[in-house]
């Protein structure tokens, strides 16, 4: 049946793309030279089983091309899915030919071979197929008594079409990945305020219940080129060459283990797919010399700022090397990471800057095309590009390229750069529906065959040189400053201050100082696990609470800015010379640790004198302007509790009496100045006694001298009970107050609005809302780490069956349904009410911000 054979031919095309590049070209194109030649086809041997459908194990084809005789000796591939009963796949490695063979019956019941495929001859590539003949036409053939086709075979005519020259690198994925350096300039001495906005969460799409998914494993071999190795070698703190080399190798392996752990999370987060994709780093190969890094060193072009490498040439070289070398371990995909600036020839002979390049739909191919190249700036900035290029290998096109998606949504497979909005802020960590559809079609097609199932269903054993970092966070190993230094050198650092947003903004907008400029900071993305608040870190672009995250002062998450801060001075020196600079928000933003050492709970005189040169003699004149400017020297200031404020439905005096540790919170300290002043001890690091008065009182002095399991001191935590005096630190290392008690709570948007939250407690996972309705959310918390407010997405989790395999894979998102209990219907029913409350809250908060200005 010709229609059936056509359907199988599509499968043959897909299956055999790994034989040779030319095997991809089974669909004829118009405009090529065409000629009809004579030839003879003869089968050799007897079919081995009924599934062979009468096709012999070997096939000889003699053709006359340009007055030359070409003899092709085809061997049948036995590793072919038996579901293709009327189609056989044959190859002649020597002549670079790959064909599909079927048998057709004429009206007399006699079978004839039908051939279709590609072949090489004298450097040319031809498509070849039988001439369509009249089914009643006579054909010459002869069979012996054993039904074997004899060497005489069957005379046939073939149509040859000569290919035009084409570039094997002409893949749609060779486009610039979504990446841009967004920059800001650091603010001078000035007060900058930024109104806080509440993000109104949108209702998540319904997730279809899917009980069972098929695990597929993508084993990637990562190759670090010589530039990457040199960068890590130069950063080594060791003294001897051998030690520096060893440390560099260990750090590189750990670094890429973190990179692929992050990529794996991006792919595992896909839920609308009958497959669970696991991306595994199976081996890391490091080029420790230029000669061992031929793929980039052979194409390296010296540039004043950053040496460049043509990505087309490098990827082609890598592909050829992978096809012929015996040095590579088994792999499903090879990814080359380069420390050079990748370029690609563009129109007019100029050069485009790109950050990655990959072949499309080549995953699992064994001809070297299952490969990509990624530019690695360091600081984990390559993670998004690597996930993007691997997506191309899984057949995904760019969003908006002949599909219904758009790159403006900023998903992983977006092309180019698009503006960030609240709606698309987290999309760079997610795949679009179009990408997921590409993945589904590709994987479904691949696993129809033995080779595809072997590649995707069987996970390779990782090389021992790949460290296990699944329980570690790269953002804790390399803090924000260290991540910036990896990209911009040892003089770089995180840019601090109100002009760079709130601490939680670092998860999507981490600004790093470029020391080659005077005051310019460029935007990067923080690594997973980067601290962004007290017991909070970055995960998937969000600042989320985690019990394993470090306890930090919410007012000084990143500490003092290292290096020069203002006037060619570092923070400790600058603030020590005149603490009054801390009245400026920009100074507190960069030097929060140093300013904290001078903070005094005296309203309007928190940092002492506002002017330099104050003297007690001037205080005696009693001039208000002088007293206000020299409030520290003149001991002038108002330290009273704000009578309009209630916290946890308590007055300041009642709150501080119930928990003196509340005064460690700068906001409470300001509102309740007088009450906090009464209990102020004057002891640095223990200004208001125990950090958790009820806990410390319960433990008593019997635990003094002991340590917690994380190594921290009980005495420091219960400094009042244990009469502990923290050691005095040198001025160059500011003292930070780590608040481990819950921040004092007050419902800032009104009890009636926050009351609605109690009907849908999961919205308390929103950090901003949790702050606005702090008292309510604290009351609703079940104190289960990571599941304090039940399911994060109760509507989606409602369709899951507790205890199912799929449910066990979503214990984080559906911690309540898939965890200990299975309640939460009230949360789901009230989501829409809370959305209205949040919208009202946004208006109220905007009004408050305007009034404060």
Description:
The chain folds into five domains: 2-162, no CATH class; 213-415, 3-Layer(aba) Sandwich (Collagenase (Catalytic Domain)); 475-599, 3-Layer(aba) Sandwich (YefM-like fold), CATH 3.40.1620; 638-744, no CATH class; 751-852, no CATH class. It contains 27 helices and 25 strands. The strands form six sheets. An eight-stranded antiparallel β-barrel has the order 1-2-3-4-5-6-7-8. A five-stranded mixed β-sheet has the order 11-10-14-18-17, with helices on both faces. It is elongated. The N terminus and C terminus are likely disordered. This is Peptidase M12B domain-containing protein.
In short:
This protein is an alpha+beta fold. Helix content is 27%, strand content 17%.
Name a few traits of the molecule.
853 residues, alpha+beta, Collagenase (Catalytic Domain), YefM-like fold, eight-stranded antiparallel barrel, five-stranded mixed sheet, disordered N terminus, disordered C terminus
């Amino acid at each position: 049946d010709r229609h059936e054979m056509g359907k199988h031919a599509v499968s043959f095309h897909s299956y055999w793309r790994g034989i040779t590049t030319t095997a991809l070209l089974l669909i004829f194109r118009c405009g090529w030279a065409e000629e009809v030649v004579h030839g003879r086809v003869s089968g050799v041997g007897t079919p081995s089983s009924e599934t062979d459908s009468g096709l012999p194990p070997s096939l000889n084809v003699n053709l006359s091309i340009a007055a030359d005789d070409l003899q092709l000796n085809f061997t049948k591939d036995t590793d072919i899915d038996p579901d293709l009963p009327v189609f056989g796949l044959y190859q002649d490695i020597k002549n670079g030919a790959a064909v599909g063979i079927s048998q057709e019956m004429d009206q007399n019941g006699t079978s004839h071979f039908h051939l279709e495929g590609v072949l090489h001859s004298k450097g040319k590539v031809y498509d070849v197929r039988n001439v369509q003949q009249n089914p009643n036409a006579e054909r010459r053939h002869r069979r012996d008594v054993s039904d074997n086709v004899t060497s005489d075979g069957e005379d046939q005519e073939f149509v040859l079409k000569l290919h035009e020259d084409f570039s094997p690198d002409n893949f749609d994925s060779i486009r610039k990945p979504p990446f841009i350096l967004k920059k800001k300039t650091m603010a001078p001495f000035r007060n900058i305020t930024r109104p806080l906005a509440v993000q109104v969460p949108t209702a998540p799409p319904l997730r279809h219940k899917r009980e069972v998914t098929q695990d597929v494993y993508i084993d990637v071999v990562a190759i670090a080129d010589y530039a990457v190795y040199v960068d890590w070698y130069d950063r080594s703190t060791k003294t001897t060459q051998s030690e520096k080399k060893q440390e560099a190798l260990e750090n590189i392996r750990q670094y890429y283990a973190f990179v692929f752990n992050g990529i794996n999370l991006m792919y595992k987060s896909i839920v609308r797919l009958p497959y669970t994709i696991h991306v595994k780093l199976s081996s890391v190969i490091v080029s420790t010399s230029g000669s061992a890094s031929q793929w980039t060193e052979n194409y390296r072009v010296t540039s004043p700022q950053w040496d460049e490498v043509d990505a087309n040439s490098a990827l082609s070289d890598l592909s050829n090397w992978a096809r012929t070398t015996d040095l590579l371990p088994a792999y499903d995909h090879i990814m080359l990471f380069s420390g050079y600036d990748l370029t690609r020839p563009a129109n007019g002979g100029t050069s485009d800057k790109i950050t990655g390049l990959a072949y499309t739909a080549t995953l699992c191919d064994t001809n070297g095309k299952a490969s990509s190249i990624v530019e690695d700036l360091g600081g984990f900035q390559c993670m998004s590009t690597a996930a993007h290029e691997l997506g191309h290998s899984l057949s995904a096109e760019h969003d908006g390229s002949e599909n219904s998606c758009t790159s403006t949504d900023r998903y992983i497979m977006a092309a180019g750069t698009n503006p960030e909005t609240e709606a698309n802020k987290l999309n760079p960590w997610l795949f679009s529906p179009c990408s997921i559809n590409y993945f589904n079609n590709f994987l479904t097609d691949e696993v129809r065959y033995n080779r595809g199932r072997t590649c995707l269903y069987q996970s390779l054993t990782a090389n021992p040189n790949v460290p296990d970092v699944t329980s570690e966070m790269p953002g804790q190993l390399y803090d924000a400053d260290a991540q910036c230094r990896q990209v911009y050198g040892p003089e770089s650092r995180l840019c601090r201050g109100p002009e760079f947003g709130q601490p939680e903004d670092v998860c999507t907008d981490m600004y790093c100082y470029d020391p080659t400029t005077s005051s310019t900071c460029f935007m990067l993305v923080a690594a997973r696990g980067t601290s962004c608040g007290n017991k909070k870190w970055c995960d998937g672009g969000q600042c989320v609470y985690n019990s394993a995250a470090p306890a930090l002062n919410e007012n000084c998450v990143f500490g003092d800015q290292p290096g020069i801060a203002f006037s060619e001075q570092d923070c400790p020196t600058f603030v020590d010379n005149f603490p009054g600079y801390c009245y400026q928000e920009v100074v507190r933003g960069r030097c929060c640790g140093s300013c904290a050492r001078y903070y005094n709970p005296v309203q309007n005189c928190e940092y002492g004198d506002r002017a330099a040169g104050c003297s007690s003699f001037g205080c005696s004149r009693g001039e208000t302007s002088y007293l206000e400017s020299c409030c520290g020297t003149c001991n002038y200031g108002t330290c009273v509790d704000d009578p309009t404020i209630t916290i946890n439905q308590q007055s300041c005096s009642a709150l501080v009496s119930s928990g003196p540790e509340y005064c460690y919170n700068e906001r409470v300290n300001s509102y309740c100045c007088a009450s906090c002043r009464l209990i102020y001890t004057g002891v640095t690091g223990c200004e208001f006694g125990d950090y958790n008065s009820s806990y410390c009182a319960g433990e008593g002095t019997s635990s003094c001298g002991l340590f917690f399991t994380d190594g921290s001191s009980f005495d420091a935590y219960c400094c009042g009970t244990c009469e502990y005096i923290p050691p005095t630190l040198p001025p160059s290392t500011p003292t930070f107050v780590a608040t481990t008690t819950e921040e004092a709570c007050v419902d800032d948007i009104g009890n009636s609005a926050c009351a609605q939250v109690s009907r849908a407690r999961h919205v308390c996972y929103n950090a901003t809302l949790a702050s606005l309705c702090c008292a309510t959310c604290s009351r609703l918390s079940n104190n289960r780490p990571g599941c304090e407010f039940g399911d994060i997405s109760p509507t989606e989790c409602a369709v899951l069956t507790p205890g199912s395999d799929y449910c066990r894979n979503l214990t984080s998102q559906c911690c309540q349904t898939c965890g200990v209990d299975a309640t939460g219907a009230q949360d789901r029913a009230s989501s829409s009410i809370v959305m209205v409350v949040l919208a009202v809250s946004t208006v109220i908060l905007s009004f408050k911000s305007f009034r404060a200005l």
